[in-house]
Protein 1
Amino acid sequence: MKTDQLKDLLQLAETAFAAEQSKLANLSSQEHNLRDQLAALTSSRQQSVDRLAPTPAGRAGAEVRWHRWIDSRRETLNRELATVLAKRATAVASVRKAFGKKEALAALVARAKADDLQQQNRRRDYTS
């Protein structure tokens, strides 16, 4: 295969690698967002538990409903987080594969350039 064709393939591999990295970054962002939401819910629940004096809302049963809602929301967020983590694991494998292809093509391009240079030197130095 010619050096120019290999360079074109390398460019495609680099683009594919960048696309896979972008997908992984998006999933990492989603994971971070979900973890932040979970932390905020945990903090909110802990603050309401830490209150020493009962509140009017607590006496009316609103605090119990609030805790149930927090628990329900945490379950939902944990399910979403598990889905994102599974997708992220797949994305990491895809990034590794794309990186491997890119690196292999980069090595092929380097070897092709070296071969081209060697051929040019042979032609230049050839005497009949």
Protein 2
Amino acid sequence: MSRQQIELADEAATLQLGASLASKISTGLVYLQGPLGSGKTTLARGWLRALGHEGPVKSPTYTIVEPYRLRGVDVLHIDLYRIDNSRELDYIGLLEQLELSHLQLVEWPEQGRGQLPPANVVISLATQREGRIAIISYFNEYSSMC
């Protein structure tokens, strides 16, 4: 495992971090952790736009999963905030969807504990003074990206 910490001054810096990560990571399971308002969806928005998405990117809080096909890459933007029990992931077929996609950006992964596979990358976001901080942990073959 390798780890890096990045200070994010504002929303633009969070979007830029997402774009930067998109240039390095086009496959794998990415957990986006942090409290409400910490920038998880903003980071995902920057990532998806860097991969070529031109429309709006909003949190899939109510739809749970938003699929994208971008430059030949199948991406899932997932928000598990409304999941009460991780067994619900079986009912909605999420685990099968994970296997059929290339890249998965999962907000609130703790709601899927015990059902979700281990992440390749975990990004923990928190507010700090007037900005945010991101701690990125890379696992397995992704460790060399730090």
Protein 3
Amino acid sequence: MAQAKKGKLNFRCPSCFMRDIDIDMFYDNEKKEYYCLRCCFKGSEEDVLRLNEQARYRYRAINLRVVDFGEDNKPITYKKHERGQQ
């Protein structure tokens, strides 16, 4: 998404992003905090970065596909998914 105004870089709203909605947050210079127009989330840059890192952790294996589930107590085998493959 494009940034609405120049200034500090906007981040994705962590609350909306956890619900699979991709919304940029806006920065309030007076309060020194980020806020979302769609939901009621607001927070400091540290809060936004921490929560966005949690979202990245959730989707860390999105490009991996399970090849073999393995037997009990054996690791699951993955392979990197290439675009256009099944």
Protein 4
Amino acid sequence: MLTLKLITEETERVIAGLEKKHFTGARQAIEEVIAVDKARRQAQAELDQNLSAAKKLAAEIGMLMKQGKREEAEEVKAKVAALKEVSRDLENKKETAEQELARQLCQIPNIPYDEVPEGASAEDNWVVKSNLKECVIGKDTVGNWDADPAPKTDMLPHWELAKKYNLIDFDLGVKITGAGFPVYRGKGARLQRALIDFFLDEAQKSGYEEIMPPTVVNAASGYGTGQLPDKEGQMYHCTEDDLYLIPTAEVPVTNIYRDVILDEKDLPIKNCAYTQCFRREAGSYGKDVRGLNRLHEFSKIEIVRIDTPEHSAESHKEMLQHVEGLLQKLELPYRILRLCGGDQSFTSAVCYDFEVYSEAQKRWLEVSSVSNFDTYQANRLKCRVRRTATGKTELCHTLNGSALALPRIVASILENNQTEQGIRVPKALVPYMGCEVIN
């Protein structure tokens, strides 16, 4: 969440940032936070004053008793009792203000960096790079793919290819669980495992330490990374134990550093994790969710970094290069978008999406989001760095990205690599698959 220091010292910049993110009632929300914080500080000041006065009076009681001035001592006792009663009221007032302040701050999103473009929705995102020859930067233009082009006629969508080659059984998933829970089998399951191993091996080569975290987390973890209370309705909730199935490995991995003070020399910390991910995707329907386009359970490799404020931009750049390198090695047509303010997540300060092109569906499919959260998550997590030179602590920056999410990668591989002989396996995956063609 935003720090009170930022809100009170740079109020207009915060309001402008929230308006850029199309946060309704930005000015009112910030003014209410400032008002509640003022009430909290005033209650604290009065409480401190009262407690100090009560302490001084209490010291007088013993002296008066020693001097035999019992009546005066009783009068002072009465004053102390009255001050304590006022102090209890002030303590309650302060706690109420603190609770209200925490509630309000949780409802305010992060503010975007200056580089984030203006815009209200995905239509306003900027294309900043693509491996399509005729892609116009900043405009949605599909050109010719630099790599060997896939056939342009009689292209089957991935759900038909999956059925043709017995790779994925969507109906069986419905039988076992419900829609959005596919069953991978044979070479379809092998392709999943090949991609997982490939992505983890590439992350290891880039210096990421692999983590195998739980796939259920407590509410404190969901709060720490900003899924709660913002995305509560999108998470599967085990009500009896008050635990949540993770929507991404970002949640458990980043929470490793909750309530932790890190040494500056140990940053940046680089972690990666493969997990199953679970998302309710409430309200999703229609052709855009067919097949692997939108699932309730899916596999994903996540990369997470904890860094110093001055180096986090470089970390973000390195993460973007890592994800782009994966798509290049998979020989997929891709583009990179800088998200506009209105399309950014609740917690991000800047975010880039990677999309692959689906030749059969004639549409772009998002496969990764790489975000810098600045201090927003760290403030919730109480994740700090201790400076080597001064010994002082300050909030870290947190970053994360998908590297990569499997369902739409699989969809794109199947659709873009279909041939008369079968599905051509990208060269980088051949050692993991043990074959060059899926048929």
